Amino acid sequence: MPSSTATPSSRPPEIEEILTTLSRYNPEATPVLQDYVATQCSTESYDIMANLALLKLYQFNPQLMREETVLNILAKSLTVFPEPDFTLCLHLLPPALLSSYPSTTTASSIIPSAPAANSDDTLTNSVHRLTYLNSLLEMAAFPNFWSTLSSDADEEYAELVADVSGFEDAIRGGIARAITLSMRSIKIDTALGLLNFPNKEALAQWSVSKLPGWSFVGDALVQKTEEEDSIAPSAAGTASSGKVKFEQMSRVIKRVYENQLIH
Amino acid sequence: MDNEQVAYDYDDFIQKTGDYDFEDDEPLATDLIETETIDEELLLKQQQLFQHQLQLQQQQAAAQLPDAIRNFILYFQHCLKENNVYDLHGCYENTFNRLTEKFYKNTPWPDPHEVIAPLVENDQPFVTLYTEMYYRHLYAKLQPDLVDRFASYDNYCVWFNYVFDPNSPTDLELPTNWAWDIIDEFIYQFNSFALYRSRTVRKSHNEEEIQQLRDHPQAWSSYGVLNVLYSFIQKSRINEQLEAVRDGRDPDEVAGSDGSRSLYKTLGYFSIIGLLRVHTLLGDFTLALKTMESIDLNKKTKYSRVAGAQFTIYYYVGFCYMMLRRYSDAIKAFSHILLFISRSKSFHNRSAQYDSVTKRSDQMYALLAICVALCPTRLDDSIHTTLREKNGEQLARMQRGGEESLPVFEELFTFASPKFMMLGPPDYENPANNIDPLQHHLKVFMMDVKNTMLAPTLRSYLKLYTTLNIEKLATFVEISPEELRSALVVFKQKSRQVRWTEGSLLDGEVVNVSDLDITLNGDLIDISEARIVRKFGDWFLRNAAKYYAVQDTIANKNPTVEDGKENKEHGKRRERREKGGEKSSK
Fold this sequence. Notes:
The structure holds two protein chains of two kinds. By secondary structure, chain A is mainly α. Chain A has a domain of 48 residues. Chain A has 14 helices and three strands. A three-stranded antiparallel sheet of chain A has the order 1-3-2. In chain A, β2 and β3 form a beta hairpin. In chain B, a hairpin with a 2-residue loop joins β4 and β5. Chain B has 27 helices and five strands. The radius of gyration of chain B is 29 Å and the shape is globular. In chain B, α2 packs antiparallel against α3 and α19 crosses α20. By secondary structure, chain B is mainly alpha-helical. Among the domains of chain B are: 79 residues, Arc Repressor Mutant, subunit A, CATH 1.10.10; 50 residues, no CATH class. The relative contact order of chain B is 0.05. At the A-B interface, α3, α5, α6, α9 and β1 of A face α11, α15, α22, α25 and β3 of B. β1 of chain A pairs parallel with β4 of chain B.
């Protein structure tokens, strides 16, 4: 999996031009980058460097800031979890937006409760909601994530990601990567909860293309065994090697040679 | 002088920057016109009187200069004029510091415009450079006030304009160290100004100062500072040159007429490092690392001899990696430079920057402790020992995890992070909106730390088993099986990190950085642990070298190594080894 900071192939030349020159500080680049965010939302492409550049422009010119775009950037960066992109965006937001976000976790459970959306400022509330969604993803609390997203009590959550086409599938893709990385088999009931599918049929249909290498065995989804190679820790092989490079011996050899000269 | 008058001086000064001519400056006399109505004749008389007094003052001030200082200034100016880089280096690096120690330990150096300018017959390039040193000394030893801050900024502008002036391309050359110090200090003062400004707006009720800050939004503005750094980079075409070097071509082919000159090249190179720092201070960690694209950290250049630049590079690169959650890369960066510092300690002992080096390395040990707590890693032996001495207790608390570890993370982060700043001016209307950016970045950083709070506990149990039931572990850890499943997925995800292998600092491959690997198999956890086997080859070689050193000591023989540099390093290592040997023998 490549680092998400690499240049995506979908980046058009005019954006590349902005990002690699001083135009990235030119307020006139703002509308171009804003349109690009809209394009990313509608075409399921993603370009973190362009989005960070836009947030930076907003820092320079707070009067140009468009709330909708900021929220779309944040929602979009959720789709690449567990990459740190969401927090990279947070670092570039005005501090006042996060200052009232609750910083303590509740003692009874490790899953935090949803932040009370009680600020007068709607942008603050929205950023808090997205930050909460991000922490659920970061904690791999996927069932909680889905239930929060589709919560009837607070429909704002669904509203916030509505602009991002393919949002749910992108998140499912991320969860699928997490499952593939950490599991060899998983009960179907658990998988339904993690991936937010109503029944086995929907999961089966989806898993054909999105979970390659996995198959249904009894009441479980099982990963084929050739993947096992990647499960064995790669550090083991290198750490135990007792090889000594010739260059390391140079001092010893030199010393022996010098001693011979002396005697 | 009272405040108002100084402020007036300053305005006048602003208007005249470029060709600031001291002799024409009559602030007091003009002041009088506005405040009192006096007939012209009297005014003229007063003016003359004032001129006369001023001249007298100057002469007196110049006369009061200790001979050592006067001679130094004249010699210094002479070296600059002659472009004698070698002696300039001596003046700058040694004499200036020695004289500071002797004459100006707690007082500013002689005023650049009132005392020094007449002494050197208004040699503008020299006065500007002297002013830069004057303020640097003032910032380091005394408390600069707002007027000093503005004036210092203007002086930088004057100097940069002089360097950039296309009509008179300067053939000036500066010692590499000095060029670094200028860029370094420029950013330091920029940062210091931003902190001063936000502190003034948040806490103080000094309306006059706040008004002055509002009236001068362009002073030390982020745009201005970034503009200077980017201009140096573009003018020197340093990125193109570095790329050429990397591809094995001749850098002069792409350098152009400006870029081939040593001063531009040097300032361009250091401006890249300056940008790394500014972007980090502003919280843009990706862009900070991206800026370093054309610099190959593993390659030695003449710039890597500037110790201050090296410390800065590795501190900020390491910090950015940490914020990108690439802890193993951060650990590598910190370890590298800390090892370098500990090896060259005796050298820095004598240098003027000893205190700042010590502080920086303390900060980096603190960051290293954070990274090691978040990503358990085997460190270099000597780094590990020092880390345990400095932050041992904190590290232990962080490694235990849980709720109690959070304040330690916060404490170390606050101590060791750069002095974050806001990009724009503060909100003058609503002082409450001006939140310390450190708190903001700390908050975002802690969100991630909180997600790994459970990891140390899980680790300690998982190490004991090869397979374990989720239900069973859940009762040990006292959380629900579902929460545990999530925690284990996080545990596994965190063991995979992007790690640099080659190319730009942002590139890298996803690798396993943990010695403990888990796989969930239904409700069972399969655990495998990579055992680190001691490298016997290394061990024997190290001890063979030790043994040779002892032999040499007994024979009292001087080491015979052709390369002078290596010679020194070996000598130092040997010294240390001997010390270690003595201790253990006692």
